Amino acid sequence: MFSLRWLAASCLGVLLFIAFQIIPQLETAATSTGTSAVMDRQAARERAVSLAVTSFGVAREDIQRLDLTHFSDSDAVGYLSRSKLMNAYDHGMDERFPTDVYRSDIQLASGEWLQLSVHMQTGRLVAWRKLGENGAVWSRSGRGGSQNAAVGGDGSNAESAAIASLSRWGYEPDEWEPTGETTIEGALVFQSRKPPIGEAKVQLLVKPNEELMYRIVLPQNFKNYMERQQDLASTMTAIGYVLPEIVLFALAIVYATTYAKFTSFRRGWLLSGLYFVLYVLFTTNMRAGFRSSSESGLPVNDQGVTTLLVVNAVVLAATAVLTYFAAVGGDGLWRSMGYSLWPQAKEPGYGRRVLRSMRHGYALAFIALGAQSIILFALEMLLGSFVSSDTTQSSYNMTYPWLMPLIACCAGLSEELLYRYFGISLFRRWLTGMAGRLMRREPSRRAAGMLTIAAMVPPSVIWAFGHVGYPIYPVYTRLIELTLLGLLFGWFMLRFGLMAAIFAHITLDAMLVGVQLMFDGLPYDLYSGIFSVAMPAIVGSAIWLLHRLFWRNNAPPVPAG
After folding, report:
1. Which residue, 5, 210, 348, 432, has fewest beta-carbon neighbours within 10 Å?
2. In 3D, which of 155, 318, 187, 178 has the Cα closest to residue 248?
3. How many CA atoms lie within 13 A of 538 on its CB side?
4. What are phi and psi of 64, to 5 degrees?
5. 8 Å CB contact between 99 and 77
């Protein structure tokens, strides 16, 4: 039963979520300079074509293709976030040197490329360069020339030419100091004479007629810190997540077979299949996101993106199979222990149970959002946690941003079936079995309850290890956060059943995705955000309606609790 105490906790969770996660974003939006609206992908493509024609003399008919990608300087975002300097950078540097850009890779009829980076809000050209067919920077002597041909033999002449190029593109030469450094492509490096933001300095890379790029130079100790953190995240993912996943895969098959008499192999096939279809649809929608994972700065060919999509689909297929066996094995384990946490569609009142689980899911998600807000705030205070950026799943890199909420359904279905339904039942069976052998009798109800709580910990930790690769630092921030949330979701499942836990997980992720969409600044993302928040209710109502239409002859529904 969902008592007033649970309802009060849900209301408190909403207030905490608003206070710690919504209001800070509103304050940031209120203090940002210029317009907060972000160009959508079509507008950005049109802007890039216009710039190619007007600023570089490219004929429209010579444009063979245009790949648009949202890129972000994740290290710079991390440094500014950690140092509380993001607002200062936005006011002082963002107009000419944004940390996030739309980059257009434009292939011309000649096979060469024109690479344009524009400000995502103003459409201003902030960086550009020309690339040959093989990705090498053009030289003035034509394709395939020496990389240093633009520099010439006289360094002073090269510097004068670079300064003239700066002036031609709207920069004040007096504000830039030559460093004496030359990049491997032959561009001269100039550093801003303006005071740095913290220790972050801006440099321009200038090669007349071929390149005018910029880079944000960060303190070496911070760069070393980020490298160590990323290496640590890779190690933690491999040891704490990938290896346990392989073991869980084998165990799920074993226990699904061993406990088949308590369940049916028809359990979970629809949910695991739905997970696979939705996730493939989600990944196909983010082709540009795969392009953004290239660190070379060169155009990413279609073959490379397609290969990544195929590999991703194979991994998703394996995860879907694991989810299926986890559903069967978990159901068999729980029913063998005398628990019925997941009703079958043929049971009386199933549709009403789904509606009730959906309502409970919203309330439980609000509790989880409040808990998450407190946990993240505490970790920020205690560990100095900060957030960087990740463009691989950016809404700006999605063909249809309104499909972004699909990730909430995928995570809720697979992770609750694997880590909560199967994971907790597996460790509970082991712990109660060991306790029974040690005491030579069945554990008492109190002891069994304590063992059940202990059984929640290992799968929660494994689930948390799977998220340490997210751009939140130190990387163990997510390990702590999601281990605690995993225990909370385990409690939700045991108290209200599997369907309520799935709806709670989906709703939590849908709320976070919805808020992100609303603040992303795309013209139509307010409606996408509203759809994301409403999606669990739409899904629950649809299941109830379908069940009512196809199972009319069921026994009277159970009373609503």
Report:
1. 5
2. 318
3. 10
4. -90, -35
5. yes
